[in-house]
Amino acid sequence: MKKECVTMLLAGGAGKRLGLLTKNLAKPAVPFGGRYRIIDFTLSNCLNSRMYTVGVLTQYSPLELHKHIGVGKPWDLDRMEDGLTILSPFTVNDGGSWYLGTADAITKNIHFIERYDPEYLMVLSGDHIYHMDYDKLLRYHKEKNADVTISALEVPWEDTSRFGILNTSEDLKINQFEEKPIHPKNNLASMGIYIFNWNILKKYLEADARDSVTNHDFGQDILPAMIMDNRSLYAYRFDGYWKDVGTIQSYWEAHMDLLEESLSLSSPNNNWKIYSHDSNFAPQLINQQATIRHSLVNNGCIISGSLDHSVLFENVQVADGAVIEQSILLPGVRVGENVILKRVIVQENVTIPSNTRIIAESTSEPIVLSNENLESIS
Question: Which family does it belong to (predicted)?
């Protein structure tokens, strides 16, 4: 059962900044890209990188997420000796608790990791959009003879307060980790992707668990402690597309990014596919009067109106005379005649009555429509 590297995928986030999109849904389970869910990108990266031993740590509102993941079949992780295992918080004889932080989530599952006696532990987040070969990251970790390797990329300076910032020397050795700094020294941000030498990390996790004054968090506690102890931490520069879809604005932007031909994420790539469940809807039907410009339209859709720079998930219907611009329509949406939508995100199975007009100005956040707020907004 020994495995060189075990992967722990943190998928328990509530995603509160996504508002209505995560009201009853864990952030990694939020639909994305016309036919996927956010977690599909990380799970597909695991498959494409040949990382086959994956523990998925869930917590907040996990029903839909568990249903979607199942035994990991779409990602070829339904295996006998390793594969995908869902790890939810559990109680033991002395009681139990929710995961108290990212580090605590790993600590509470040491028993799972130890089954495979790994040399390395990779920790991932299940709520980012990107393609990445984790095997290259592991090779880099070995080449640097590092105790910890953190994947990082440069972010806009105005966004640095949202991330953990890595201060490094020229050879990318990390000498300081600043969690969401107000006045950062640089803009090299952690992507929340870590590789640890397991025997070293385990000691820090156990010490953290005994500490009564801690946040039980990698960014706030574990990594600073390792730096203080002069452990060997290195940054791995990532130069591809990566998006933290943690806000309504970033979620909308990421969908608009899918429509950019220059992005590798949207280019056909038979060697790095994104896998998910296939709902087996019939092919789309585009009626004669429909006009479609630079949009993604998925199976089961029936289009009679006009689409421009929009993403339509499966089984969406757009009636005659409707105009949809820069919008995202999740599965099962029904758009009536002569409806106008601009910069709008419509949740699953919402029916928009004919002659409705909803426009979000370019200076404001996109509008999210649900069955709960449709009447008040329209």
Answer: Belongs to the bacterial/plant glucose-1-phosphate adenylyltransferase family.
